[in-house]
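#onboarding

Welcome to the new folks! Below is a worked example of what a typical request in this channel looks like: someone posts a single protein sequence, and someone else replies with the predicted structure as tokens. Don't worry about understanding the tokens yet, we'll cover that in week two.

Example request:
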Amino acid sequence: MNKIIRVSALVLVLMAVLAAAVLFTVQTAVQGGATVAYTESVEAAVLKQGSRGDDVKTVQQKLKNWGYYSGSVDGIYGSKTKAAVEYFQRKNGLKVDGIVGKATFAALGMMEQAGQSGSQSNGYTNSDTYLLARCIYAEARGESYTGQVAVGAVVLNRVRSSKFPNTIAGVIYQKNAFTAVNDGQINLTPNQTAINAAKDAMNGWDPTGGCLYYYNPATATSEWIFSRETVVTIGKHVFAI
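Example response:
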């Protein structure tokens, strides 16, 4: 009888050990799967050399349109794409690492990928408003309030025009489009006046009557800009089409 009891007890112990081993294996597999999923989500948050897909094509096309990239729009993130991204980052005050992460996505106007998708009632995002305010502050902080709204309106008129990129970020960061981007003033923190001016422009106030260009005749050096048809002068800026 005692032998039977001892054997039964041993069987129960072995069964318990086996069950624990199975449970450990399952938990490890689940945790491993979670780790893989987490890693994949992290990888999906950035584009870098070796990445492929439609988002890479979008980045390539934007950089090509704006003069930063001359390679093929093939969805393959190779050395030429990386060099173009670095060039874009360098010119626009971003961390130069050749990786398209949150900040670079936002600068490219790829707001969904940047995780900034909160829309306002006028269809623009909070990120759009802040970037437009930065542009207004950098380009026109010494102008009247109407003059600041006018600068914002020109940016938005370009967004709507087929001649320019179709996002606020695309217009502002288009190569050599704005002096403030070239000299780094785009990275200054806008004041509340500039933010209000951006909102008014987004809500439809256009003191320029649809202009696509503006310049200060006292400082402009391009002969081409003087050939544009003048519509209105507000403060120190001439607005033209």
